[in-house]
């Protein structure tokens, strides 16, 4: 048995991505290797963040007890948990659940790609405003499948321009789902739509974080 550092777990609607609006059970893990300027879960990244050690079996049992079939693993950076493959193999062995992993673009996805089709990656590409772009592993774009997602969290016009360059350079809208999401409160929402219109960004989805509209944006556990 391995053990994982869980800072929170809860049921909500997924506020983001291809399953937005559907119920999901969230497991958030402690610790991250990046320090994005806009991070809304910086509290979870701290070494001293209070966490509960859970085995893969305990995490799986919790998920099953909820009766919710979409599972989102997030953080922090979930793929940094020691022995995370063991957890992913257990979750993937249950065909009744669908697993989504939110990952930060700096972790090589190769070791996780062959675990099973029930696992989908939502990989963030960190734009200039995050101050973390130098950490991106661009080879990950070749490791994504049609069911995966690349997400760009944009806070400025410069970020939008960079997102467009990357989408074109790697042909992302033909390869997988592509989302642009505002850094919460940082950018005029209309300017994202205008940019998409001006540049005819077919196949790209704009998203808003629904949970920050429904609840106080600072709330945890939603
Ligand atoms: C907190 S991260 C955890 C997973 C992983 N570390 C990552 O960055 O993808 C989950 C998602 O929230 C996004 N996010 C964090 N802070 C945000 C903010 N202030 N506004 C919009 N999205 C944000 C991240 O870009 C990422 O897509
Ligand atoms: N409701 C809700 N949906 C989410 N989708 C991705 C989240 C995340 O923090 O990774 C998240 C979150 O924290 N809450
Ligand atoms: S990679 Fe994710 S968890 Fe880590 S600092 Fe950036 S947004 Fe926050
Ligand atoms: Mg979040």
UniProtKB/TrEMBL annotation:
GO molecular function terms attached to this record: 4 iron, 4 sulfur cluster binding; carbon-nitrogen lyase activity; magnesium ion binding; S-adenosyl-L-methionine binding
Gene: queE
Family affiliation: Belongs to the radical SAM superfamily. 7-carboxy-7-deazaguanine synthase family.
Domain Radical SAM core intervals: 19-217
NCBIfam families, per database record: rSAM_QueE_Clost
Pathway the protein takes part in: Purine metabolism; 7-cyano-7-deazaguanine biosynthesis
Catalytic activity of the protein: 6-carboxy-5,6,7,8-tetrahydropterin + H(+) = 7-carboxy-7-carbaguanine + NH4(+)
Summary of the function given for this chain in its UniProt record: Catalyzes the complex heterocyclic radical-mediated conversion of 6-carboxy-5,6,7,8-tetrahydropterin (CPH4) to 7-carboxy-7-deazaguanine (CDG), a step common to the biosynthetic pathways of all 7-deazapurine-containing compounds.
Binding positions for S-adenosyl-L-methionine per the UniProt entry: 38-40, 76
Binding site for Mg(2+): 41
Broad enzyme group: lyase
UniProt keyword list: 4Fe-4S, Iron, Iron-sulfur, Lyase, Magnesium, Metal-binding, Queuosine biosynthesis, S-adenosyl-L-methionine
The protein, known as: 7-carboxy-7-deazaguanine synthase
Residues that hold substrate according to the record: 13-15, 28, 74
